[in-house]
Write a structure and sequence with these properties.
The model has no long low-confidence stretch (mean pLDDT 93). The protein is α/β, with parallel strands linked by helices. The chain is 42% helix and 16% strand. Helix 4 runs parallel beside helix 5. Strand 1, helix 1 and strand 2 form a beta-alpha-beta unit.
């Protein structure tokens, strides 16, 4: 039975990946999920699999060398899938040190622990060991509005403390591959959306606010462009890179779904109007009048767009979920998990939300 160590598995993408893996492999694999359970880590995301005999949760900080080393010492880890990261740009502008610690130091700790567990006396590594570092398209900086794409060869040009910290972690992984021939891959992905996403990110924030009749905050002119990917398509891509990707390579994972932020908001409003029954009192509240333009984010990148040519050519992966379908699936999930949303939008999140968008 192959054992996977998944870091940040209680977060948005990590929890979806764990669900995907158990749906695909069932009892053939074992997953150890290590998560510090910061504000975005939520064990409710994994309630339906927490009693599986081939699943283990460990509450630990990836910067804690003793805790991470213990996991490798007590288990024969075959695969590391490294999601754990601070990931919200707004938070990185306010607290850059937190991002540097988790994203750079935490990645270094994981690399060192995996290397120590897998390396043989002659400097080679135990057979069939792999480390996959999950990164972001934001490390590449910003594109012109009128064209161009990010490729694996695009020079790094991060503009926020978040993207700079992820660029730093990417460089660490690259250095271990080059210096130690460490068996790793890097994936750089476009914006994800789907179930279990913490509502500080655009799509769940807009869905939640619209259903509550609250303002829909839009940075600047709303014309910043992102490439959107349904999270389960990302989970499939990660699994395929892990099993079919060439070692030491970077693979860009993109959705070919470029949308302006304001387009996304209009689409969510229209889809909610379609999906809410006439008898639901919330339907009357969901209108374009809720859209409120706010001061632009500092250093706000104008456009991201990934060219996933390499992963398609070498591995055969391409996105399967069209954006309109993905938005409907996401909204339906939120309809069916309103208690989940109530739980994650209480307490510290509400305080953070008020500070970030200057609401009383």
């Amino acid at each position: 039975m192959r054992t996977y160590l998944v870091t940040g598995g209680a977060g948005f993408i990590g929890s979806n990946y764990i669900h995907y893996m158990f749906e695909k492999y069932g009892e053939q694999i074992r997953i150890i999920n290590v998560d510090a359970l910061t504000y975005a880590g939520n064990l409710e995301n994994l309630k339906d699999i927490e009693d599986r005999s081939n699943y283990t949760f460990v509450k630990a900080d990836i910067c804690d060398k003793e805790a991470i080393n213990r996991i490798f010492t007590e288990n024969e880890i075959d695969r590391v899938v490294h999601f754990a990261a601070e990931s919200h740009v707004d938070r990185s502008i306010r607290e850059p040190e937190v991002f540097i610690r988790t994203n750079v130091l935490g990645t270094a700790v994981l690399l060192n622990c995996a290397k120590a567990a897998w390396e043989k006396e002659d400097g080679s590594y135990k057979e069939d060991k792999r480390f996959l570092h999950v990164s972001t398209d934001e490390v590449y900086g910003s594109l012109d509005e009128d064209g161009g794409y990010f490729y694996e060869t695009t020079p790094y040009a991060p503009h926020s403390p978040y993207s700079a910290s992820k660029a730093g972690s990417d460089m660490l992984v690259k250095s271990y591959m080059d210096t130690y021939h460490f068996p790793a891959n890097i994936t750089n992905c476009s914006n994800n959306y789907g179930p279990f996403q913490f509502p500080e990110k655009l799509i769940p924030l807009i869905i939640n606010n619209a259903l509550s009749g609250k303002k829909l905050p839009v940075y600047g002119d709303g014309r910043n462009v992102r490439d959107w990917l349904y999270v389960m398509d990302h989970a499939k891509a990660i699994d395929m890179v892990m099993e079919k990707g060439r070692l030491f390579e970077t693979y860009n994972i993109g959705g070919h779904n470029e949308k302006q932020n304001i387009e996304i908001i209009h689409m969510i409003i229209e889809t909610l109007q379609e999906m809410l029954p006439d008898s639901d009192p919330r339907k009357a509240k969901v209108t374009k009048e809720l859209i409120t333009f706010v001061e632009d984010r500092k250093g706000h990148d104008r456009r991201y767009a990934i060219a996933p040519d390499k992963i398609k050519a070498e591995i055969g992966w391409e996105p399967e979920t069209m954006f309109k379908e993905g938005i409907r699936k996401t909204i339906q999930w939120f309809f069916e998990h309103e208690e989940w949303m109530k739980h994650v939008t209480s307490g510290d999140y509400q305080k953070y939300y008020r500070e970030m968008y200057r609401e009383d």
